[in-house]
Amino acid sequence: MMNNPLTIFELLNKNTYSIPLYQRNFAWTDVEITQLIIDLLDSIKDNRSEYFIGTLVVSKKGNDYSIIDGQQRFTTILLIALAIQNESSFTKRVNKMNLCFEARKRSNETLKSLFINDMDTGITDNELRRGYDETVSALKEHIGSSDYPDIKTEDFYGYLLDQVKIFISEMPKDLDVNLYFERFNSRGEQLEYHEIIKAELMQRLVADDVDYTEVQKFAKIWDACSQFDTPCIKFFKKKTKGSDADEEREKVFNCEWSEYEPGKNSWQYGYSLKDIYSKIVVNKESKKSLIEAIKETVDNSADIDAEENEDSSKYRCIINFNTFLYYALYLTDNVDAGSIQLDDKKLVSAFKVSSRDSQWILNFGENLLKAKFIFDNLIIRNSLETTNRRKEGEWFLQKAYRQDKNEKARGHLYVQTRYDKNAFAENNDEILMLQSMFAVTFTAYKDTKWLYTILKYLFENAEKPNEDDFGKDFYDFLEELSKRSAIERICNNRGLDVQRLRYENYVPVYAFNLTDYVLWKNRVKLGSDYNKVTFNDFRFTYRRSIEHWYPQNPNESEKKSKLPDDLLHCFGNLCLIVASQNSAFGNLYPLAKLANWRNIFSTQSLKLQMMAEKTELWNGWDETKRTAIFEMEKSIEKLIEEYIYGC
Question: Quick one: which of 8, 2, 4, 1 has its CA closest to 51?
Answer without folding.
Answer: 8
